[in-house]
Structure to design on (587 residues):
Protein backbone atom coordinates (compact mmCIF):
# COMPACT_ATOMS: atom_id res chain seq x y z
CA UNK A 1 0.00 0.00 0.00
CA UNK A 2 2.72 2.39 1.03
CA UNK A 3 4.62 1.80 -2.19
CA UNK A 4 1.48 2.55 -4.21
CA UNK A 5 1.15 5.90 -2.41
CA UNK A 6 4.82 6.61 -2.98
CA UNK A 7 4.39 5.78 -6.64
CA UNK A 8 1.40 8.14 -6.78
CA UNK A 9 3.39 10.96 -5.18
CA UNK A 10 6.37 10.38 -7.45
CA UNK A 11 4.05 10.39 -10.46
CA UNK A 12 2.43 13.65 -9.37
CA UNK A 13 5.72 15.34 -8.63
CA UNK A 14 7.67 14.56 -11.75
CA UNK A 15 6.86 11.08 -12.98
CA UNK A 16 4.71 12.11 -15.91
CA UNK A 17 7.34 14.47 -17.27
CA UNK A 18 10.03 11.79 -16.91
CA UNK A 19 7.90 9.30 -18.81
CA UNK A 20 7.13 11.82 -21.55
CA UNK A 21 10.85 12.38 -22.11
CA UNK A 22 12.24 8.91 -21.48
CA UNK A 23 9.85 6.72 -23.51
CA UNK A 24 10.41 8.30 -26.95
CA UNK A 25 14.07 8.95 -26.10
CA UNK A 26 14.81 5.30 -25.37
CA UNK A 27 12.82 4.19 -28.42
CA UNK A 28 14.83 6.39 -30.77
CA UNK A 29 18.12 5.43 -29.12
CA UNK A 30 17.41 1.72 -29.55
CA UNK A 31 15.74 1.66 -32.95
CA UNK A 32 17.44 4.59 -34.67
CA UNK A 33 20.78 5.50 -33.11
CA UNK A 34 22.00 1.99 -32.29
CA UNK A 35 21.31 0.67 -35.84
CA UNK A 36 23.12 3.65 -37.26
CA UNK A 37 26.12 3.15 -34.97
CA UNK A 38 26.17 -0.49 -36.09
CA UNK A 39 26.34 0.64 -39.74
CA UNK A 40 29.16 2.99 -38.85
CA UNK A 41 31.07 0.14 -37.17
CA UNK A 42 30.19 -2.19 -40.05
CA UNK A 43 31.79 0.18 -42.55
CA UNK A 44 35.15 -0.52 -40.86
CA UNK A 45 34.68 -4.30 -40.80
CA UNK A 46 35.96 -6.92 -43.21
CA UNK A 47 33.78 -9.03 -45.45
CA UNK A 48 33.88 -12.72 -44.56
CA UNK A 49 32.13 -15.79 -45.98
CA UNK A 50 30.47 -16.44 -42.61
CA UNK A 51 26.89 -15.67 -41.61
CA UNK A 52 26.43 -12.80 -40.81
CA UNK A 53 29.00 -11.96 -43.51
CA UNK A 54 31.40 -9.69 -41.65
CA UNK A 55 34.23 -9.88 -39.18
CA UNK A 56 37.01 -7.90 -37.63
CA UNK A 57 40.53 -8.97 -38.49
CA UNK A 58 43.65 -8.11 -40.49
CA UNK A 59 46.29 -5.52 -39.63
CA UNK A 60 43.85 -3.00 -38.27
CA UNK A 61 41.08 -5.15 -36.83
CA UNK A 62 38.68 -2.43 -35.73
CA UNK A 63 39.47 0.19 -38.35
CA UNK A 64 39.64 -1.51 -41.72
CA UNK A 65 39.43 1.39 -44.16
CA UNK A 66 39.53 -0.82 -47.27
CA UNK A 67 35.90 0.01 -48.02
CA UNK A 68 36.58 3.73 -48.01
CA UNK A 69 39.71 3.23 -50.10
CA UNK A 70 37.66 1.36 -52.70
CA UNK A 71 35.11 4.17 -52.58
CA UNK A 72 37.76 6.60 -53.79
CA UNK A 73 39.66 4.20 -56.02
CA UNK A 74 36.82 2.46 -57.85
CA UNK A 75 35.29 4.64 -60.58
CA UNK A 76 31.91 2.90 -60.21
CA UNK A 77 31.25 4.52 -56.83
CA UNK A 78 32.55 7.92 -57.86
CA UNK A 79 30.32 7.90 -60.94
CA UNK A 80 27.33 6.78 -58.90
CA UNK A 81 27.83 9.71 -56.52
CA UNK A 82 28.20 12.19 -59.37
CA UNK A 83 25.11 10.81 -61.15
CA UNK A 84 23.06 11.04 -57.94
CA UNK A 85 24.14 14.57 -57.08
CA UNK A 86 23.65 15.80 -60.67
CA UNK A 87 20.22 14.21 -61.08
CA UNK A 88 19.09 15.56 -57.73
CA UNK A 89 20.47 19.04 -58.47
CA UNK A 90 18.81 19.23 -61.90
CA UNK A 91 15.54 18.00 -60.42
CA UNK A 92 15.80 20.62 -57.66
CA UNK A 93 16.39 23.47 -60.15
CA UNK A 94 13.51 22.32 -62.37
CA UNK A 95 11.21 22.00 -59.35
CA UNK A 96 12.13 25.55 -58.39
CA UNK A 97 11.53 26.82 -61.94
CA UNK A 98 8.03 25.27 -62.03
CA UNK A 99 7.20 25.41 -58.32
CA UNK A 100 8.05 29.05 -57.67
CA UNK A 101 5.63 30.57 -60.22
CA UNK A 102 3.01 28.02 -59.11
CA UNK A 103 3.37 28.98 -55.45
CA UNK A 104 3.33 32.67 -56.31
CA UNK A 105 0.32 32.15 -58.57
CA UNK A 106 -1.52 30.38 -55.73
CA UNK A 107 -1.09 33.41 -53.46
CA UNK A 108 -2.75 35.66 -56.08
CA UNK A 109 -5.85 33.50 -56.49
CA UNK A 110 -9.02 34.24 -54.51
CA UNK A 111 -9.18 32.19 -51.26
CA UNK A 112 -12.11 29.92 -52.23
CA UNK A 113 -10.37 28.58 -55.32
CA UNK A 114 -7.00 28.67 -53.61
CA UNK A 115 -8.02 26.09 -51.00
CA UNK A 116 -9.23 23.69 -53.69
CA UNK A 117 -6.04 24.14 -55.72
CA UNK A 118 -3.89 23.66 -52.60
CA UNK A 119 -5.74 20.45 -51.91
CA UNK A 120 -5.01 19.38 -55.50
CA UNK A 121 -1.30 20.02 -54.86
CA UNK A 122 -1.41 17.93 -51.68
CA UNK A 123 -3.54 15.10 -53.11
CA UNK A 124 -0.75 13.41 -55.14
CA UNK A 125 1.38 13.60 -51.98
CA UNK A 126 -1.14 11.45 -50.10
CA UNK A 127 -1.45 8.89 -52.90
CA UNK A 128 1.21 6.27 -53.20
CA UNK A 129 4.69 7.43 -54.22
CA UNK A 130 5.20 4.13 -56.01
CA UNK A 131 2.05 4.57 -58.08
CA UNK A 132 3.07 8.09 -59.12
CA UNK A 133 6.35 6.69 -60.45
CA UNK A 134 4.38 3.91 -62.09
CA UNK A 135 2.07 6.41 -63.85
CA UNK A 136 5.10 7.73 -65.74
CA UNK A 137 6.25 4.25 -66.67
CA UNK A 138 2.98 3.96 -68.58
CA UNK A 139 3.56 7.30 -70.32
CA UNK A 140 7.20 6.84 -71.26
CA UNK A 141 7.05 3.37 -72.80
CA UNK A 142 7.94 3.24 -76.50
CA UNK A 143 4.38 2.67 -77.81
CA UNK A 144 2.42 4.79 -75.32
CA UNK A 145 0.30 7.71 -76.59
CA UNK A 146 2.59 10.21 -74.86
CA UNK A 147 5.74 8.86 -76.44
CA UNK A 148 4.01 8.65 -79.86
CA UNK A 149 2.91 12.26 -79.52
CA UNK A 150 6.42 13.42 -78.63
CA UNK A 151 7.95 11.30 -81.39
CA UNK A 152 5.63 12.81 -84.00
CA UNK A 153 6.42 16.29 -82.75
CA UNK A 154 10.14 15.54 -82.94
CA UNK A 155 9.96 14.00 -86.41
CA UNK A 156 7.96 16.98 -87.67
CA UNK A 157 10.40 19.50 -86.22
CA UNK A 158 13.77 18.03 -87.23
CA UNK A 159 15.27 17.14 -90.64
CA UNK A 160 14.34 13.71 -91.96
CA UNK A 161 17.69 12.11 -91.25
CA UNK A 162 17.12 12.59 -87.54
CA UNK A 163 13.70 10.97 -87.54
CA UNK A 164 13.26 8.24 -84.93
CA UNK A 165 10.80 5.43 -84.50
CA UNK A 166 10.20 6.28 -80.86
CA UNK A 167 12.03 8.43 -78.35
CA UNK A 168 14.04 6.31 -75.91
CA UNK A 169 12.85 7.67 -72.57
CA UNK A 170 12.65 4.72 -70.19
CA UNK A 171 15.86 3.71 -68.42
CA UNK A 172 17.64 7.03 -68.95
CA UNK A 173 18.76 9.77 -66.60
CA UNK A 174 16.23 11.99 -68.35
CA UNK A 175 13.45 9.68 -67.11
CA UNK A 176 14.89 9.76 -63.59
CA UNK A 177 14.94 13.57 -63.49
CA UNK A 178 11.47 13.87 -65.03
CA UNK A 179 9.91 11.49 -62.49
CA UNK A 180 11.82 13.16 -59.64
CA UNK A 181 10.41 16.54 -60.63
CA UNK A 182 6.96 14.99 -60.81
CA UNK A 183 7.07 13.25 -57.43
CA UNK A 184 8.93 15.92 -55.45
CA UNK A 185 7.26 19.07 -56.86
CA UNK A 186 4.74 19.32 -53.96
CA UNK A 187 7.69 19.45 -51.52
CA UNK A 188 8.88 22.58 -53.35
CA UNK A 189 5.49 24.26 -53.74
CA UNK A 190 4.21 23.87 -50.18
CA UNK A 191 7.07 25.53 -48.21
CA UNK A 192 7.35 28.24 -50.87
CA UNK A 193 3.63 28.91 -50.69
CA UNK A 194 3.77 29.06 -46.86
CA UNK A 195 6.60 31.58 -47.17
CA UNK A 196 5.10 33.74 -49.94
CA UNK A 197 1.67 33.80 -48.34
CA UNK A 198 3.04 35.52 -45.22
CA UNK A 199 4.68 38.39 -47.14
CA UNK A 200 3.18 41.84 -46.69
CA UNK A 201 1.37 42.88 -49.90
CA UNK A 202 1.56 46.58 -48.98
CA UNK A 203 5.30 46.49 -49.75
CA UNK A 204 4.49 45.48 -53.33
CA UNK A 205 1.92 48.23 -53.57
CA UNK A 206 4.33 50.83 -52.21
CA UNK A 207 6.95 49.81 -54.80
CA UNK A 208 4.33 49.93 -57.55
CA UNK A 209 3.23 53.41 -56.43
CA UNK A 210 6.84 54.51 -56.61
CA UNK A 211 6.88 53.43 -60.26
CA UNK A 212 8.55 50.01 -60.08
CA UNK A 213 7.59 47.66 -62.92
CA UNK A 214 6.00 44.32 -61.97
CA UNK A 215 9.17 42.35 -62.69
CA UNK A 216 11.15 44.85 -60.61
CA UNK A 217 8.74 44.32 -57.72
CA UNK A 218 9.30 40.59 -57.98
CA UNK A 219 13.09 40.88 -58.28
CA UNK A 220 13.68 43.49 -55.56
CA UNK A 221 10.93 42.72 -53.07
CA UNK A 222 9.32 39.28 -53.39
CA UNK A 223 12.39 37.22 -54.29
CA UNK A 224 14.72 38.37 -51.47
CA UNK A 225 12.01 37.74 -48.89
CA UNK A 226 11.31 34.25 -50.18
CA UNK A 227 14.87 32.91 -49.89
CA UNK A 228 14.09 30.85 -46.73
CA UNK A 229 11.22 29.18 -48.63
CA UNK A 230 13.46 28.52 -51.63
CA UNK A 231 16.10 26.90 -49.43
CA UNK A 232 13.60 24.82 -47.46
CA UNK A 233 11.88 23.60 -50.64
CA UNK A 234 15.18 23.02 -52.43
CA UNK A 235 16.57 20.87 -49.63
CA UNK A 236 13.28 18.96 -49.31
CA UNK A 237 13.68 18.02 -52.98
CA UNK A 238 17.44 17.53 -53.10
CA UNK A 239 17.97 15.35 -50.01
CA UNK A 240 15.45 12.59 -50.73
CA UNK A 241 16.12 12.74 -54.49
CA UNK A 242 19.88 12.17 -54.09
CA UNK A 243 19.39 9.04 -51.98
CA UNK A 244 16.30 7.72 -53.75
CA UNK A 245 16.02 4.04 -54.58
CA UNK A 246 12.57 3.58 -56.13
CA UNK A 247 12.88 5.98 -59.09
CA UNK A 248 16.33 4.85 -60.32
CA UNK A 249 15.33 1.19 -59.95
CA UNK A 250 12.12 1.56 -61.95
CA UNK A 251 12.97 4.09 -64.66
CA UNK A 252 16.74 4.60 -64.32
CA UNK A 253 19.67 3.53 -66.45
CA UNK A 254 21.06 0.32 -64.95
CA UNK A 255 24.48 0.93 -66.49
CA UNK A 256 24.97 4.20 -64.56
CA UNK A 257 23.19 3.52 -61.27
CA UNK A 258 22.46 6.09 -58.60
CA UNK A 259 23.93 5.72 -55.15
CA UNK A 260 20.77 4.35 -53.49
CA UNK A 261 20.77 1.47 -55.92
CA UNK A 262 24.47 0.84 -55.40
CA UNK A 263 23.94 0.52 -51.65
CA UNK A 264 21.00 -1.81 -52.11
CA UNK A 265 22.83 -3.98 -54.68
CA UNK A 266 26.03 -4.18 -52.60
CA UNK A 267 23.94 -5.36 -49.71
CA UNK A 268 21.46 -7.71 -51.31
CA UNK A 269 23.20 -9.08 -54.44
CA UNK A 270 26.88 -8.86 -53.55
CA UNK A 271 26.26 -9.57 -49.84
CA UNK A 272 29.07 -7.17 -49.03
CA UNK A 273 27.75 -5.56 -45.84
CA UNK A 274 30.93 -3.60 -45.00
CA UNK A 275 31.07 -2.06 -48.49
CA UNK A 276 27.36 -1.22 -48.48
CA UNK A 277 27.85 0.42 -45.09
CA UNK A 278 30.84 2.45 -46.31
CA UNK A 279 28.80 3.77 -49.24
CA UNK A 280 25.89 4.56 -46.91
CA UNK A 281 28.13 6.45 -44.49
CA UNK A 282 29.69 8.38 -47.38
CA UNK A 283 26.25 9.32 -48.71
CA UNK A 284 25.26 10.53 -45.27
CA UNK A 285 28.40 12.66 -45.05
CA UNK A 286 27.54 14.26 -48.38
CA UNK A 287 24.03 14.96 -47.13
CA UNK A 288 25.11 16.47 -43.79
CA UNK A 289 25.70 19.89 -45.39
CA UNK A 290 22.26 20.15 -47.03
CA UNK A 291 20.64 18.72 -43.87
CA UNK A 292 22.27 21.33 -41.65
CA UNK A 293 21.22 24.13 -44.00
CA UNK A 294 17.68 22.79 -43.95
CA UNK A 295 17.38 22.40 -40.18
CA UNK A 296 18.95 25.84 -39.66
CA UNK A 297 16.27 27.51 -41.76
CA UNK A 298 13.59 25.25 -40.29
CA UNK A 299 14.57 26.22 -36.74
CA UNK A 300 14.46 29.90 -37.71
CA UNK A 301 11.01 29.50 -39.26
CA UNK A 302 9.72 27.78 -36.10
CA UNK A 303 11.26 30.48 -33.96
CA UNK A 304 9.39 33.13 -35.95
CA UNK A 305 6.09 31.29 -35.56
CA UNK A 306 6.40 30.83 -31.81
CA UNK A 307 4.75 33.61 -29.76
CA UNK A 308 7.19 35.91 -28.04
CA UNK B 1 -6.21 48.72 -61.00
CA UNK B 2 -4.70 45.26 -60.86
CA UNK B 3 -2.86 43.49 -63.64
CA UNK B 4 -3.89 39.89 -64.16
CA UNK B 5 -0.82 37.71 -63.60
CA UNK B 6 -1.13 35.91 -66.97
CA UNK B 7 2.27 34.25 -66.74
CA UNK B 8 1.62 32.85 -63.26
CA UNK B 9 -1.81 31.55 -64.25
CA UNK B 10 -0.42 29.77 -67.30
CA UNK B 11 2.34 28.13 -65.24
CA UNK B 12 -0.32 27.04 -62.75
CA UNK B 13 -2.34 25.47 -65.57
CA UNK B 14 0.75 23.73 -66.91
CA UNK B 15 1.66 22.54 -63.40
CA UNK B 16 -1.74 21.04 -62.70
CA UNK B 17 -1.77 19.39 -66.13
CA UNK B 18 1.65 17.96 -65.29
CA UNK B 19 0.31 16.67 -61.95
CA UNK B 20 -2.86 15.12 -63.28
CA UNK B 21 -2.33 14.00 -66.91
CA UNK B 22 -0.25 10.93 -65.86
CA UNK B 23 -2.84 9.99 -63.23
CA UNK B 24 -5.76 10.46 -65.64
CA UNK B 25 -3.95 8.43 -68.29
CA UNK B 26 -3.45 5.65 -65.74
CA UNK B 27 -7.15 5.74 -64.87
CA UNK B 28 -8.20 5.61 -68.54
CA UNK B 29 -5.87 2.69 -69.27
CA UNK B 30 -7.21 0.73 -66.28
CA UNK B 31 -10.36 0.27 -68.43
CA UNK B 32 -8.32 -1.01 -71.36
CA UNK B 33 -9.45 -4.29 -72.87
CA UNK B 34 -6.02 -5.05 -74.34
CA UNK B 35 -3.47 -7.17 -72.56
CA UNK B 36 -0.79 -4.73 -73.74
CA UNK B 37 -0.88 -2.09 -71.07
CA UNK B 38 -0.05 0.90 -73.30
CA UNK B 39 -2.07 0.13 -76.45
CA UNK B 40 -5.79 0.94 -76.37
CA UNK B 41 -7.99 -2.03 -77.24
CA UNK B 42 -11.50 -1.01 -76.24
CA UNK B 43 -13.36 -0.50 -72.96
CA UNK B 44 -13.47 -3.22 -70.33
CA UNK B 45 -13.68 -3.63 -66.59
CA UNK B 46 -12.03 -7.03 -66.59
CA UNK B 47 -8.91 -5.87 -64.73
CA UNK B 48 -11.07 -4.83 -61.80
CA UNK B 49 -12.64 -8.28 -61.85
CA UNK B 50 -9.16 -9.84 -62.00
CA UNK B 51 -8.15 -7.73 -59.01
CA UNK B 52 -11.24 -8.79 -57.10
CA UNK B 53 -10.52 -12.46 -57.72
CA UNK B 54 -6.84 -12.21 -56.80
CA UNK B 55 -6.54 -13.33 -53.15
CA UNK B 56 -2.98 -11.92 -52.90
CA UNK B 57 -4.25 -8.36 -53.22
CA UNK B 58 -6.80 -8.73 -50.43
CA UNK B 59 -4.28 -10.36 -48.11
CA UNK B 60 -1.65 -7.71 -48.83
CA UNK B 61 -4.16 -4.93 -48.22
CA UNK B 62 -5.24 -6.49 -44.93
CA UNK B 63 -1.62 -6.87 -43.78
CA UNK B 64 -0.83 -3.28 -44.79
CA UNK B 65 -3.84 -1.97 -42.86
CA UNK B 66 -2.90 -3.99 -39.76
CA UNK B 67 0.68 -2.75 -39.81
CA UNK B 68 -0.40 0.83 -40.56
CA UNK B 69 -3.00 0.97 -37.76
CA UNK B 70 -0.69 -0.62 -35.19
CA UNK B 71 2.40 1.39 -36.15
CA UNK B 72 0.67 4.75 -36.59
CA UNK B 73 -1.11 4.43 -33.23
CA UNK B 74 2.14 3.57 -31.42
CA UNK B 75 3.98 6.24 -33.37
CA UNK B 76 1.35 8.80 -32.39
CA UNK B 77 1.73 7.99 -28.68
CA UNK B 78 5.54 8.10 -28.77
CA UNK B 79 5.69 11.03 -31.18
CA UNK B 80 3.24 13.11 -29.16
CA UNK B 81 5.29 12.49 -26.01
CA UNK B 82 8.44 13.63 -27.81
CA UNK B 83 6.68 16.71 -29.19
CA UNK B 84 5.41 17.68 -25.72
CA UNK B 85 8.83 17.04 -24.18
CA UNK B 86 10.64 19.22 -26.72
CA UNK B 87 8.09 22.02 -26.59
CA UNK B 88 7.65 22.18 -22.80
CA UNK B 89 10.92 21.14 -21.20
CA UNK B 90 13.55 23.57 -22.30
CA UNK B 91 16.31 21.99 -20.29
CA UNK B 92 16.94 18.37 -19.51
CA UNK B 93 19.98 16.16 -19.75
CA UNK B 94 20.59 15.08 -23.34
CA UNK B 95 18.13 17.49 -24.94
CA UNK B 96 20.48 18.30 -27.83
CA UNK B 97 20.88 14.62 -28.71
CA UNK B 98 17.13 14.11 -28.34
CA UNK B 99 16.23 16.91 -30.72
CA UNK B 100 18.84 15.57 -33.15
CA UNK B 101 17.32 12.09 -32.94
CA UNK B 102 13.91 13.55 -33.68
CA UNK B 103 15.09 15.48 -36.76
CA UNK B 104 17.49 12.94 -38.25
CA UNK B 105 14.96 10.29 -39.40
CA UNK B 106 13.00 13.03 -41.22
CA UNK B 107 15.85 13.77 -43.58
CA UNK B 108 17.80 10.52 -43.52
CA UNK B 109 17.80 8.85 -46.96
CA UNK B 110 15.42 5.89 -46.77
CA UNK B 111 18.02 3.43 -48.06
CA UNK B 112 20.25 4.15 -45.08
CA UNK B 113 17.41 3.82 -42.56
CA UNK B 114 16.37 0.60 -44.29
CA UNK B 115 19.81 -0.96 -44.39
CA UNK B 116 20.66 -0.01 -40.80
CA UNK B 117 17.34 -1.40 -39.53
CA UNK B 118 17.93 -4.63 -41.44
CA UNK B 119 21.45 -5.11 -40.08
CA UNK B 120 20.16 -4.27 -36.60
CA UNK B 121 17.33 -6.82 -36.81
CA UNK B 122 19.61 -9.55 -38.20
CA UNK B 123 22.11 -9.01 -35.40
CA UNK B 124 19.28 -8.91 -32.83
CA UNK B 125 17.99 -12.27 -34.08
CA UNK B 126 21.54 -13.65 -33.99
CA UNK B 127 22.63 -12.42 -30.57
CA UNK B 128 19.49 -11.53 -28.59
CA UNK B 129 16.97 -13.87 -30.15
CA UNK B 130 14.21 -11.25 -30.50
CA UNK B 131 12.65 -10.51 -32.97
CA UNK B 132 13.37 -14.09 -34.01
CA UNK B 133 12.67 -13.65 -37.70
CA UNK B 134 11.90 -10.80 -40.05
CA UNK B 135 8.27 -10.15 -40.81
CA UNK B 136 5.30 -8.44 -39.20
CA UNK B 137 7.14 -7.44 -36.00
CA UNK B 138 10.25 -6.00 -37.63
CA UNK B 139 8.25 -4.07 -40.26
CA UNK B 140 6.00 -2.61 -37.56
CA UNK B 141 8.96 -1.62 -35.36
CA UNK B 142 10.68 0.09 -38.31
CA UNK B 143 7.48 1.90 -39.29
CA UNK B 144 6.93 3.18 -35.74
CA UNK B 145 10.49 4.51 -35.65
CA UNK B 146 10.45 6.53 -38.86
CA UNK B 147 6.86 7.74 -38.65
CA UNK B 148 6.88 8.87 -34.99
CA UNK B 149 9.17 11.80 -35.79
CA UNK B 150 6.59 13.17 -38.26
CA UNK B 151 4.01 13.16 -35.45
CA UNK B 152 6.56 14.92 -33.23
CA UNK B 153 7.06 17.69 -35.78
CA UNK B 154 3.32 18.32 -36.11
CA UNK B 155 2.65 18.20 -32.35
CA UNK B 156 5.69 20.29 -31.43
CA UNK B 157 4.77 23.15 -33.76
CA UNK B 158 1.17 23.12 -32.45
CA UNK B 159 2.47 23.19 -28.86
CA UNK B 160 4.75 26.13 -29.62
CA UNK B 161 1.94 28.17 -31.14
CA UNK B 162 -0.57 27.28 -28.38
CA UNK B 163 -1.28 29.75 -25.60
CA UNK B 164 0.58 28.73 -22.45
CA UNK B 165 -1.51 31.05 -20.27
CA UNK B 166 -4.34 28.50 -20.07
CA UNK B 167 -1.96 25.86 -18.71
CA UNK B 168 -0.54 28.34 -16.22
CA UNK B 169 -4.04 29.29 -15.12
CA UNK B 170 -4.87 25.63 -14.50
CA UNK B 171 -1.64 25.28 -12.49
CA UNK B 172 -2.49 28.36 -10.43
CA UNK B 173 -5.90 26.89 -9.70
CA UNK B 174 -4.14 23.88 -8.15
CA UNK B 175 -4.18 21.25 -10.90
CA UNK B 176 -1.43 18.72 -10.78
CA UNK B 177 0.95 18.66 -13.77
CA UNK B 178 -0.53 15.53 -15.29
CA UNK B 179 -4.06 16.89 -14.76
CA UNK B 180 -3.06 19.99 -16.71
CA UNK B 181 -1.75 17.69 -19.42
CA UNK B 182 -4.90 15.58 -19.49
CA UNK B 183 -7.52 18.33 -19.18
CA UNK B 184 -5.88 21.31 -20.89
CA UNK B 185 -2.90 20.52 -23.08
CA UNK B 186 -4.10 17.32 -24.77
CA UNK B 187 -7.48 18.77 -25.81
CA UNK B 188 -5.72 21.85 -27.22
CA UNK B 189 -3.29 19.81 -29.32
CA UNK B 190 -5.79 17.09 -30.29
CA UNK B 191 -6.17 18.32 -33.91
CA UNK B 192 -2.39 18.10 -34.28
CA UNK B 193 -2.41 14.59 -32.79
CA UNK B 194 -5.10 13.56 -35.27
CA UNK B 195 -3.23 14.93 -38.26
CA UNK B 196 -0.04 13.33 -36.94
CA UNK B 197 -1.82 9.98 -36.82
CA UNK B 198 -3.13 10.41 -40.37
CA UNK B 199 0.37 11.30 -41.55
CA UNK B 200 1.92 8.29 -39.80
CA UNK B 201 -0.81 6.03 -41.19
CA UNK B 202 -0.26 7.24 -44.75
CA UNK B 203 3.52 6.96 -44.48
CA UNK B 204 3.19 3.40 -43.25
CA UNK B 205 0.65 2.43 -45.93
CA UNK B 206 2.89 3.92 -48.61
CA UNK B 207 6.35 2.76 -47.60
CA UNK B 208 8.31 0.56 -50.00
CA UNK B 209 12.01 1.01 -49.29
CA UNK B 210 12.19 0.46 -45.54
CA UNK B 211 9.56 -2.31 -45.67
CA UNK B 212 11.48 -4.00 -48.47
CA UNK B 213 14.58 -4.12 -46.27
CA UNK B 214 12.91 -5.16 -43.01
CA UNK B 215 10.33 -7.66 -44.26
CA UNK B 216 10.77 -11.38 -44.54
CA UNK B 217 9.28 -14.19 -46.60
CA UNK B 218 5.50 -14.38 -46.35
CA UNK B 219 5.05 -10.81 -45.16
CA UNK B 220 3.95 -8.97 -48.31
CA UNK B 221 2.38 -5.56 -47.79
CA UNK B 222 0.43 -3.92 -50.59
CA UNK B 223 3.30 -1.60 -51.66
CA UNK B 224 5.69 -4.57 -51.70
CA UNK B 225 3.24 -6.54 -53.86
CA UNK B 226 2.94 -3.59 -56.28
CA UNK B 227 6.73 -3.10 -56.19
CA UNK B 228 7.39 -6.70 -57.21
CA UNK B 229 4.85 -6.43 -60.06
CA UNK B 230 5.97 -3.00 -61.26
CA UNK B 231 9.65 -3.97 -61.40
CA UNK B 232 8.68 -6.30 -64.25
CA UNK B 233 6.93 -3.55 -66.23
CA UNK B 234 3.54 -1.94 -66.81
CA UNK B 235 0.57 -4.25 -66.27
CA UNK B 236 -3.13 -3.38 -66.60
CA UNK B 237 -4.16 -4.79 -63.22
CA UNK B 238 -1.78 -2.40 -61.45
CA UNK B 239 -3.53 0.40 -63.36
CA UNK B 240 -6.82 -0.77 -61.86
CA UNK B 241 -5.30 -0.97 -58.38
CA UNK B 242 -3.82 2.51 -58.78
CA UNK B 243 -7.17 3.91 -59.90
CA UNK B 244 -8.88 2.50 -56.81
CA UNK B 245 -6.13 3.95 -54.59
CA UNK B 246 -6.43 7.41 -56.12
CA UNK B 247 -10.21 7.26 -55.77
CA UNK B 248 -10.16 6.22 -52.10
CA UNK B 249 -7.42 8.68 -51.12
CA UNK B 250 -9.08 11.50 -53.09
CA UNK B 251 -12.42 11.02 -51.36
CA UNK B 252 -10.77 10.87 -47.91
CA UNK B 253 -8.55 13.93 -48.48
CA UNK B 254 -11.46 16.01 -49.74
CA UNK B 255 -13.75 14.86 -46.93
CA UNK B 256 -11.14 15.61 -44.24
CA UNK B 257 -10.33 18.96 -45.85
CA UNK B 258 -14.02 19.85 -46.00
CA UNK B 259 -14.66 18.92 -42.35
CA UNK B 260 -11.56 20.75 -41.08
CA UNK B 261 -12.42 23.82 -43.13
CA UNK B 262 -15.94 23.86 -41.70
CA UNK B 263 -14.89 23.35 -38.08
CA UNK B 264 -12.33 26.13 -38.48
CA UNK B 265 -15.02 28.47 -39.77
CA UNK B 266 -17.29 27.51 -36.87
CA UNK B 267 -14.53 28.16 -34.32
CA UNK B 268 -13.87 31.54 -35.92
CA UNK B 269 -17.58 32.38 -35.66
CA UNK B 270 -17.73 31.28 -32.00
CA UNK B 271 -14.68 33.37 -31.21
CA UNK B 272 -16.25 36.44 -32.78
CA UNK B 273 -19.53 35.89 -30.92
CA UNK B 274 -17.66 35.50 -27.65
CA UNK B 275 -15.86 38.81 -28.22
CA UNK B 276 -19.15 40.56 -29.00
CA UNK B 277 -20.76 39.14 -25.87
CA UNK B 278 -17.90 40.52 -23.77
CA UNK B 279 -18.16 44.02 -25.09
Amino acid sequence: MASATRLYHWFNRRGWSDIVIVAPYVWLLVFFLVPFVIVLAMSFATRTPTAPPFGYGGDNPLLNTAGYARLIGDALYFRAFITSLLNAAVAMVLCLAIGYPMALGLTKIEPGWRNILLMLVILPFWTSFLLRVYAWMGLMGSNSWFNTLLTEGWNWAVPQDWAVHSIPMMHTNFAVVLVMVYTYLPFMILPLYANLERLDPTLDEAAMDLGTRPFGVFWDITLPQSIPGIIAGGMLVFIPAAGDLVIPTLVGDASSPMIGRVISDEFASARDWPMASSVAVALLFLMVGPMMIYSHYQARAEHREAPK
Amino acid sequence: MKRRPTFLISVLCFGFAFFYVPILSMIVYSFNNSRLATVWGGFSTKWYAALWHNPQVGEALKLSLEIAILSSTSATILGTMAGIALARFKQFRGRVLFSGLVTAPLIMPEVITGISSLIFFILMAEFVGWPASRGFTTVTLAHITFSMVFVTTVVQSRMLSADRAIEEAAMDLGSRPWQVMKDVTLPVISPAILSGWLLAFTISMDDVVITNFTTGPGTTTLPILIWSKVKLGVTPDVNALATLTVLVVGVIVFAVGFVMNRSEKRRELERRLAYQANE
